[in-house]
Specification:
- There is one protein chain.
- The protein has about 240 residues and is mostly helical.
- The chain is built from 10 helices and 3 strands, in the order H-H-H-H-H-E-E-E-H-H-H-H-H.
- Strands 1-2-3 form a 3-stranded antiparallel sheet.
- Strand 1 and strand 2 form a beta hairpin.
Length: about 240
């Protein structure tokens, strides 16, 4: 259709027909339409702009995350001899994104001060250090003695892919009747436990790699490390 003939009802009908798309995808479509009409006005192709009136509905999470219950986690602790359960517990007690854990190198683990350093993350705030909880340190020590340069590897020393880690997680959750859970729920569990412990909000954000108002430029003092260690031990 010539752009001069396109009215609000045409654009809204097109968006409404995209019922299978997520809220985020519909938002991208709306943003694209807004850019197109801004360019059209700039080029004097039209003087109309209905994009500000377009509605895409409310943002309803398709796969909401759920914290793994203490009962299920306690059940995992009772079967730590099962291959792969240590990986799930490491995820829970660090709050790491699965991609951060899969990319973690053994050289990123400070043995003396017992913390891990995340050098690459999906956000700038994700570059951080996380003290290793005393309960999972034995797992980390064992992993440090295994083959490969990455901390989490298979028997041949190869790092895990996302699909392989997801399959492992599904298998482990079946053992404790937690089939409803997704891999990202390990991170959500850590965040929930930190909330339950009523820890310092700034320390919580530093551990999880969430954006903060105060910028430290990635510099962590010994005081920061002590505070973070005290925080992580509360979960």
């Amino acid at each position: 259709m010539p752009i001069k003939e396109i009215k609000y009802k045409h654009m809204q009908a097109a968006l409404d027909a995209m019922g299978g798309l997520s809220y985020a995808s519909k938002k991208k479509v709306r943003n694209l339409l807004s850019l197109l009409w801004a360019y059209a006005r700039q080029m004097d192709y039209t003087s109309n702009d209905y994009t500000g009136l377009l509605r895409i509905g409310k943002n309803r999470p398709v796969n909401p995350h759920h914290a793994i219950s203490r009962r299920k986690v306690n059940a995992l602790w009772k079967m730590t001899d099962v291959p792969g359960i240590d990986i799930i517990l490491i995820l829970i007690y660090t709050g790491l994104r699965n991609g951060e854990l899969r990319a973690l190198l053994k050289s990123d683990v400070n043995r003396r001060q017992k913390y891990i350093r995340i050098r690459k993350s999906k956000t700038a705030a994700g570059v951080r250090i996380i003290p290793i909880h005393s309960r999972i340190w034995p797992f980390v020590e064992v992993r440090l003695s295994c083959n490969g340069s990455h901390l989490i590897t298979d028997d041949s020393g190869m790092p895990y892919t996302y699909s392989r880690l997801a399959r492992l997680f599904t298998h482990v959750m079946e053992l404790v009747h937690g089939e409803k859970h997704k891999l990202h729920d390990t991170r959500h569990t850590c965040a929930t436990w930190l909330d339950d412990a009523e820890v310092n909000d700034n320390a919580k954000k530093m551990i999880l790699g969430h954006a903060r108002n105060d910028v430290t430029n990635g510099v962590y003092t010994h005081k920061n490390l002590r505070q973070l260690r005290k925080t992580i031990e509360k979960i």
